[in-house]
Amino acid sequence: MQPPVEAAAREYEDRYGVHIEITYGGSGTLLSSLKVANRGDLYLPADESYSDQARAEGLAREVFSLATMSPVVGVARGNPKGIATIEDVLDPEIQLGLANPDAAAVGRAVRAALTESGHWQPTSEAAAVSKPTVMDLANDLKLGTLDAAFLWDSTVKQFGELESVHLKELEGSTKSVTLCVLQSSQHPTAALKFSRFLSSRDAGLIHFEEKGYTPVSGDRWE
After folding, report:
1. Sheet of 71-76: strands edge to edge?
2. Is 41 in contact with 185 (CB distance < 8 Å)?
3. Across the strands, what pairs with 66?
4. Per-residue confidence band for 212, with pLDDT thresholds at 50, 70 and 90
5. 208 and 147 in contact (C-beta within 8 Å)?
6. Between β-strands 60-69 and 175-182, what pairing exists: parallel, antiparallel or unpaired?
7. Stretch 88-115: mean pLDDT, rounded?
8. Cα dihedral 73/79/85/87 (nearest 10)
9. N or C: which end of the chain has fewer CB within 10 A?
10. How many Å apart are CA 54 and CA 208, to the nearest integer?
11. How far apart are the C-alpha atoms of 136 and 21, rounded to whole Å?
12. Which residues contact 201 (CB under 8 A, 6 or more apart)?
């Protein structure tokens, strides 16, 4: 989510003179860091299950919905390997990339869906690489070191060299992107204001839509 968040943060800084320091990483990795450090104002995971976990563990005081996205198989534009089904993905000739399900939200979503369909074990065994973030996989795919990788549809849209293949096994796996105001925040009022900016349809959500996400309706920014 770096492109839309970075763009929204820079716009906010220009408007209000408030510096926003951003740390990027896998959703699970960031949540683990929050538990240890107990510092930070906002937490933006790629899957609402992490926000639910943060709230259940007393880390989040308020949650805002931003957008939705779905897991897909990312391939090079034109789909030169002709990938269309899960069986194609599992072909030994295909160099497949996975996101670590314990570190990245897309990995967790794919593991849940493919466990239900009975394909997780062969998929995890077929993977040539496991990466901590979805952007690591997208960049490998762009460079041609992978033939296919499980990515978010919104991630694929950020790369002109890539396209999405939708698998029936991943149907129903759409996830909500949510923003948490943290209990550890030393600046809760300022954090809440930026949260409202980021979740407003005529402010932060414009950047999400421009980068290929499906934003929520959102309030107007006032």
Report:
1. 129-131, 96-99, 148-152, 71-76, 162-165
2. yes
3. none
4. confident
5. no
6. antiparallel
7. 95
8. -100
9. C
10. 23
11. 22
12. 215, 216, 217, 218, 219, 220, 221
Token pair of 97 as six digits:
């990339």
* pTM (predicted TM-score): 0.81
Q: In this structure, how many other beta carbons lie within 10 angstroms of the beta carbon of residue 53?
A: 17
| Max CA distance (Å), the chain | 54
- Which residues on neighbouring strands pair with residue 68, listed in sequence order? 176, 214
pLDDT tens-place string over residues 112-160: 999 999 999 999 999 999 999 999 999 999 999 999 999 999 999 999 9
Question: 217: exposed, middle or buried (C-beta count within 10 Å: 0-12, 13-18, 19+)?
Answer: exposed
Are the CB atoms for 219 and 65 separated by under 8 Å?
no
3-state SS track over 20-56: CCCCCCCHHHHHHHHHHHCCCCEECCCCHHHHHHHHH
Residues 6+ positions from 58 with CB-CB distance below 8 Å: 183
- Mean of per-residue pLDDT scores for the chain: 95
Query: Who's near 196: CB < 8 A, 6+ residues apart?
Result: 64, 219, 221
